[in-house]
Amino acid sequence: MATQQQLVKTLLDKHGRTFASELGADLAKNTPAPLFQLLCLALLTSAPVQADIAMQGARALIDAGWTTPQKMRDSRWQQRVAALNAAGYARVDEKTATQLAELVDTLQSEYGDDLRGVRQRADGDVHEARKALKVFKGIGAVGADIFLREVQTVWSEFYPFADKAALTAAGKLELPSDAQALSKLVDRKDFTRLVVALVRTQLAKDFDSVRRAVERRG
Description:
- This protein has 218 residues and is an all-alpha fold.
- The protein folds into two domains: 4-18 and 161-217, no CATH class; 24-152, Endonuclease III, domain 1 (Orthogonal Bundle), CATH 1.10.340.30.
- It is built from 14 helices and no strands.
- Helix 1 (4-15) crosses helix 14 and helix 11 (164-172) packs across helix 13.
- The radius of gyration is 18 Å and the shape is globular.
- The protein starts with a helix and ends with a helix.
- The mean pLDDT is 95.
């Protein structure tokens, strides 16, 4: 039977790349632009589309140069629709293009275009952080959790944070199904990667593959 440490190592090796890293958003800087890019990804992922399609859409926004709130504000609705559609983010491209405009307007009025204001408003309370993120139209509970799951690397007061998808996957692999207990299995620097690896396993329905990889390790 696989030990928890064997499972964790396999998860990190197989799926331990954060979504922010895949997007190219350097959260370690804790500066407005990468935080904004992560929020856009959270918005796109909140729609009823596959995670890889949401990632393609978020990358398309970056490729188009809309990497900051002001640059997004300067874009035209039809440009955003075309960029999302070309990236395969087709069914909800028009709705999302509108939501992106609303997002940057809210970001300006609520936080002066700096998402670090969410951190200040929450003051270490994860429930307040969720509430602050849900101010953005299109960001619900899932979107807020996506953002917090990734940003805990730099907003350390929210560590350890694991969302429902990660904890569901952990339970299926007989790992601890609460964030505090799960965090005991890895160094703090690897915790976000572990949580994301669990989410990726859940999305890919990859549990058997993970178990087989553990068995091959012996």
